[in-house]
Amino acid sequence: MKKRGMSMLLCAAMVTALLVGCSSGNQNTQATAAAAAGNAASSAAAGNDGVYAMISKAAGNPYNERQAMGFQEVCEQLGVKYVIKHPESASAEAQITMVNELVAQGVDSMAVAGNDYDALQPALSAAEKAGIKVCSFDSSVNPDSRMVFVNQAGNNEIGETLMDAILDISGGEGQWAILSATSQATNQNAWIEAMKKAMEDPKYARLELVEIAYGDDEYQKSVDQTQALLQNYPELKVICAPTTVGIMAAAKVLQDEGSACKLTGLGLPSEMADYIGTDKSCPYMYLWNPIDVGRLTAYVSVALVDGSITGAVGETFTAGDMGNYEIVAASDGGTEVIVGPPFKFDSANIDEWKSVY
To answer: Where are the domains of the chain?
Structure first.
């Protein structure tokens, strides 16, 4: 997590109570910032008075809700209109419906956390032809469907970080499994591929990946998948869940059952505090600040609309007090801007962060 983004964490926590639109379960929220369009300071900061849209992966996901908080926060600070949509299911079909609705509404920008890398392309291409600036965040869509991707951290960096955690927690050998979100989730699949690539290093030779299970970012299904992994692989040493829903579900199962199998992955400190520690189910885990992912997505959306950036490699822009960012080449042939490296949460710092996000 970049230090420049960490300064906003406490502020974000303080305004959480005001951000009921993101956490109340309302799946289609449209709000207008308190500043009127005639507010010269806000208009100058935004460079336009357009409407900025965000489509998350699914409703009821605390991680998605915190991303929406950050997006909303920046839009309100800039005094611009915004629309936040949370699909009822983590499917491409649900997102396509929302993309089409936003095109009909005539929004100026659209940021999408893709539930499928390719399936959204026809709808997003139609949005771009309608003059809408399209970017992706959190979970990318293919380069033909976006101008730029707001990536929480580099894929290879995440894969290598998680593999080193598995190596450490397992003692360097034994069976391990992955509990992912959906089989189509582009961010999950990219991290899993990066993990597989990292496993080519001889230092991982004594580790055996026995299964990749999918909980579809649903709590109960993730619980069921965790229980199945324990039943099918009695010698399982580590489960890696690179999804906030999955890691929380797996942590409870392992701890409640007193399993010798341990856990790591990507989780929210507020949800995982009771499970973090050497004597608990998850010795340590990683994440970035999802509020900052949403905040940077809003700044990118504004910059695309006002023409500050086009999504080309080498372009730079200022994301408010988050600092300066540069657009770089992405591994899929498109471009991306990276929020920062993954941050480690363990027993030494979890109490500090659990009240923040």
So the answer is: 3-152+289-345, 155-287
